[in-house]
Design brief:
Helix content: 25-40%
Pfam family, one: RlmN_N
Number of domains: 2
Distance between the termini: 56 Å
EC number: 2.1.1.192
Main location: cytoplasm
Keywords: 4Fe-4S, Cytoplasm, Disulfide bond, Iron, Iron-sulfur, Metal-binding, Methyltransferase, rRNA processing, S-adenosyl-L-methionine, Transferase, tRNA processing
Strand content: 15-25%
Shape: elongated
Function: Specifically methylates position 2 of adenine 2503 in 23S rRNA and position 2 of adenine 37 in tRNAs.
Number of helices: 11
Bound molecules: iron/sulfur cluster
Length: about 350
């Protein structure tokens, strides 16, 4: 009897957006192609923003004809793009392989365009005020899906802005998906690609202390933002449960180490919740914490999430809190709320309104 042969699954080509230039070169070499083709492809895709093989006129026709079988240049399709009435903020709902969806946001102010990226579908950390946390963790994103968000949003804005900033403040805890995060950052920083300076990229964390230390050891001048939100362990245990594992003393020591090694001021993100963490004594402790390391404070008036108990303090309470900080803290800003109308503001990502 002839043995049953296993069905051979067709090998899918790797996504272009998940490969560094060196990885792409090695991949092409295994297909008998010279390494410099990787540089040419990076330039076409990331610098000339062209993905159609027919348009890549300085590449031999034989190579262009094989491109689709060598790597996948498709981006995750946008299931929806929602815009605020002033068109300053857009929320993108992207469809990923396997049916998952991820959200990312572009925000334009008079000074700059910023892309807010997601690193996971959902999040395991369950911060008490966050819509993404309510979803739980569905899965990590691959580096290609992180870089894909940038290219999809850049395409949407027709790459009009030569310089834009990136913040990892979307869905998920970026440092819980460390390898994909760093792989994506390496690709985004490639001088033959998008050539993003590390100073234009900010990683936000809820406080994974070992990974903050690891990031400090990368020798990059990435911005680091700490989702602080409370000045006592008692309150932070409630608001940001990962604090039970790495309490404030350990977190602030790691943040100080990061600031000193990177030469960057660490941003202390502080979501103001009415009657919870906006009292004068909170301001006094926050100012003291900020003075203990190279830092700046970013106050975020809470963005409501349906079903959650928290309330946003009124304008006067926000101003009063900021004024209490100002004489004592090194630098204080109050974040303008962008995108609240389309559930695209901080803490609101997670399918609501999508
Ligand atoms: S705030 Fe960030 S870390 Fe916390 S649950 Fe939301 S996405 Fe996760």
């Amino acid at each position: 009897m002839t043995p049953v042969q296993p069905i051979q699954q067709a090998q899918l080509p790797p996504s272009f957006y998940g490969l560094s230039r060196d990885q792409l070169a090695s991949h092409l070499v295994t297909h008998g192609l010279p390494t410099f083709r990787a540089q040419q492809l990076f330039s076409w895709v990331y610098q000339k923003h062209e993905r159609h093989p027919l348009a890549m006129t300085d590449l031999p026709l034989s190579f262009r004809g094989r491109l689709e079988e060598l790597c996948d240049l498709r981006l995750p399709p946008a299931e929806a793009v929602l815009a605020t009435p002033d068109s300053a903020t857009h929320k993108f709902v992207l469809e990923l392989a396997g049916g998952a969806r991820v959200e990312c946001v572009s925000m334009r102010t008079t000074r700059r365009l910023t892309f807010c990226l997601s690193s996971q579908v959902g999040c395991a950390l369950g911060c008490a005020f966050c819509a993404t946390g309510l979803m739980g963790l569905k899965r990590n994103l691959a580096a290609s899906e992180i870089v894909g968000q940038v290219v999809a949003m850049g395409d949407f804005h027709r790459w009009q802005d030569e310089r834009f900033n990136i913040v990892f403040m979307g869905m998920g805890e970026p440092l819980a998906n460390y390898k994909a995060l760093m792989d994506a950052i390496r690709i985004l920083r490639d001088e033959r690609g998008l050539n993003m300076g590390a100073r234009r990229i900010t990683v936000s964390t809820s406080g994974l202390v070992p990974q903050i230390r690891k990031l400090a050891g990368e020798g990059l001048q990435l911005g680091l933002a700490l989702s602080l939100h409370a000045t006592t362990d008692e309150l932070r245990d409630r608001l940001v449960p990962v604090n039970r594992r790495w309490p404030l003393r350990e977190l602030m020591a790691a943040a100080r180490e990061y600031g000193e090694r990177s030469g960057r001021r660490v941003t202390l993100e502080y979501t103001l919740l009415a009657g919870v963490n906006d009292r004068p004594e909170d301001a006094a402790r926050l100012a003291d914490m900020a003075r203990a390391l190279p830092s700046k404070i970013n106050l975020i008036p809470y963005n409501p999430v349906p079903g959650l108990e928290w309330k946003r303090p009124d304008h006067r309470a926000v101003e009063a809190f900021a004024h209490r900080l100002m004489p004592r803290a090194p630098a204080v800003t109050v974040r303008r709320t962008l995108g609240g109308e389309i559930w695209a503001a901080c803490g609101q990502l997670g399918g609501l309104g999508a």
